[in-house]
Design goal:
By secondary structure, this protein is α/β, with parallel strands linked by helices. Helix content is 53%, strand content 13%. Strands 3-2-1-4-5-6 form a 6-stranded parallel beta sheet, sandwiched between helices. Helix 1 links the parallel strand 1 and strand 2. Helix 3 packs across helix 4. Bound molecules: nicotinamide-adenine-dinucleotide. Nicotinamide-adenine-dinucleotide binds next to helix 4 and helix 7. The site of nicotinamide-adenine-dinucleotide (NAD) has 27 residues, from helix 4 and helix 7. One of its GO terms (biological process) is L-valine catabolic process. One of its GO terms (molecular function) is NADP binding. Pathway: Amino-acid degradation; L-valine degradation.
């Protein structure tokens, strides 16, 4: 477990993040070892082929299981779909594998989970790792696949001061803003609140843009008014859902909503917000409605699940046919 980093979960985000991290670490220390693992072996192999084509001398190994990835490295990074996957990988693989290692190896272990998942699940995993003597941070990201590729992600970090300091230089290889939000779970709390607001805004921007068109307004004129007025927000000024509203910025709607942050993930994040709010007795009347609208949009137009979440506009438009 000398100088080695393991990355588990090489999907749309993880593959870009691991590429940035490993390429920078390799350039700084060519003797570094890198380990990758994914439930789909072809994803890990594709990553390896791509990385080695750029850095032929790198020590990059594909392993079949998260247990092997844990035993191989002191730094373990996970980027998985959601709570059940994180629970499974840590409870069934990372934690049991660590328990089999000498105690000095356990205390030198740092786990960084960048998945967006339930705060309580993340806290439980971190607490179990901490009780063994290992460090863990929750470090969900903002910035999407484009930010992951460009290395400009924002990391919202939850954990102790010590674990934050250990994770900071690693996260800095994959992102631009590394924010310590507070103790374990705080990074996820910040991420979930942000996406709750974003999810609601994207729907209401679609509603306003639709109503404006019914009133005879040109979408580009309306978008420019909103974006220089008090209704402007990221959902209107960058991710405007109406083709022709922001032609110069080329939002996903210009490609039939391909790419971007898919509706299924937004629905998952709205669900995380409404679930934690129920546990906290915190009222989310708009959040609950927005969650139901995203769910209904996928139910009625299943192809929207894998389109950018601004495609909720297509669903709203279908409600407005007359
Ligand atoms: P993804 O589904 O593309 O990737 C997840 C990867 O994890 C897949 O390759 C899958 O095979 C792998 N995986 C699943 N279970 C596994 C297991 N048990 N062991 C090993 N590998 C396993 O998802 P993504 O788009 O990369 O998103 C990852 C996380 O980042 C999610 O929590 C998402 O909400 C969050 N996020 C995504 C975006 C985005 O724009 N895609 C933006 C911000 C945050």
């Amino acid at each position: 477990r000398a100088k080695s980093t393991s990355f588990i979960g090489l999907g749309r985000m993880g593959s870009e993040m691991a590429y940035n991290l490993f390429s920078k670490e390799y350039t700084q220390s060519p003797e570094s070892n890198f380990v990758v693992c994914d439930a789909l072996p072809e994803s890990a192999k594709a990553f390896q082929d791509n990385f080695l084509s750029q850095f032929p001398g790198a020590n990059l190994q594909v392993v079949d299981t998260p247990v092997q990835a844990t035993v191989a490295s002191k730094t373990i990074i996970t980027m998985l779909p959601s709570s059940p996957h994180v629970k499974q990988v840590y409870s069934e693989s990372v934690i049991p594998a660590l328990k089999g290692l000498p105690s000095q190896d356990i205390t030198q272990t740092l786990c960084i989970d960048s998945t967006t998942l339930d705060v309580d699940v993340a806290r439980a995993v971190a607490s179990e790792l901490n009780s063994l003597g290992a460090q863990m941070v929750d470090a969900p990201v903002s910035g999407g696949v484009a930010g992951a590729k460009a290395g400009t992600l924002a990391f919202l970090v939850g954990g102790t001061e010590q674990s934050f300091k250990l994770s900071q230089p690693i996260l800095a290889q994959m992102g631009q803003r590394i924010i310590h939000c507070g103790p374990s779970g705080a990074g996820l709390g910040a991420k979930i609140c942000n996406n709750l607001i974003l999810g609601v805004q994207q729907i209401v921007v679609g509603e306003g843009m639709l109503l404006g068109q019914k009133l005879g307004l040109d979408p580009a004129v309306l978008a420019s008014v909103i974006n220089s007025s008090t209704g402007g927000c990221w959902a209107s000024s960058v991710n405007n859902p109406v083709p022709g509203a922001l032609p110069e910025k080329s939002p996903p709607c210009e490609r039939d909503y391909q790419g971007g942050f898919v509706t299924a993930l937004m629905l998952k994040d709205m669900g995380l917000a409404t679930e934690i709010a129920r546990k906290q007795n915190s009222a989310l009347p708009l959040g609950e409605l927005a969650e139901a609208i995203y769910a209904k949009s996928i139910q009625e137009q299943p192809e929207l699940a894998t389109r950018d979440f601004s495609a909720v506009y297509k669903y709203l438009r279908a409600q407005n046919v007359s």
